[in-house]
Amino acid sequence: MRPDETARFLRVRTTVRLPRRFSYPLFGVGLAQGAPAGLLVVRNLASSTPLGWGWVTGQLRGDALTYIYVAVSTSIAFALLGWLLGYKEDELSRRSTTDALTGLPNRRHLNEQLRSQLKRAQRDGSPLSMLLVDLDGLKSINDAKGHEAGDLALVTVARTLRSASRESDVIGRWGGDEFILLAPGSTAEEALELAQRIRQKLREAESAETGPLSVSVGIADSPPDAPRVAGQLYAQADIALYQAKAAGRDQAVVSKRYSELPPSL
């Protein structure tokens, strides 16, 4: 793993917040309450009467429908405007964390999820496994059948990862022909079974457009008693993936444990 990639892993901060399409309307309704208050102030200035609680309650009782109309109509308008702005903000945010081709979360989102999942695993004292999945021979598919076939092969891998994984697993496209699957609560040995299931399902999903498809998988886990370092977990999986490729591709390799790795990782 390059130093700049490790640094990106370690700089990620994960935040949980209400979608803007919900928070912006609430904020807008709050702002809208200034409309009836402003009307009270304008009327008070026009009447040259000292502003006091008695004058305010008299205004509200004497012209309640006007103040209710101003409050409700302004709240509806501000809520609708807030929803529209919030929806657009949410859509921009979604696109910034979604891979356009496969519809999977992209590298940015995976960085955030890895940090979050590592913290959760440390808190719960549970393992976390990473599967680094690489589509074999993407360049050959592009050269022989065209880039549309290559794109279809990537989409097929994404679809296979979804169908083979659990609801709690985190899947995303890391870039190019690489995908990442995070399996919370799974050891490397359990993740190996998942990798074999992915490989089997992918063989069943081949089509005339793409031809036979296969993946190489590098697997690493973060045991409960190991340091929870995002960059190190990725580096382990990357080494295992390289071993799978060097051994002939179309196979899954489990990385060595943390204790067996060189101190430089």
Q: Can you summarize this structure?
A:
The protein is α+β, with helices and mostly antiparallel strands and 265 residues long. Helices cover 59% and strands 12% of the residues.
Task: Please describe what this structure looks like.
The protein has 265 residues and is an alpha+beta fold. It folds into 2 domains: 20-96, no CATH class; 98-260, Alpha-Beta Plaits, CATH 3.30.70.270. It has 10 helices and 5 strands, in the order ααααααβααββαβαβ. The protein has helices at 3-11, 20-32, 34-47, 53-62, 64-96, 107-124, 138-145, 147-164, 188-204, 230-246, and strands spanning 128-135, 170-175, 178-184, 215-222, 252-254. It has a 5-stranded mixed beta sheet, with helices on both faces. α10 links the parallel β4 (215-222) and β5. The longest helix is centred in the N-terminal third of the chain and has 33 residues, at 64-96. The model is unreliable at 1-15 and 258-265 (pLDDT under 50).
From the structure above, extract its key features.
single chain; 5-stranded mixed beta sheet; Alpha-Beta Plaits; 5 strands; disordered N terminus; alpha+beta; 265 residues; disordered C terminus; elongated; 59% helix; 2 domains
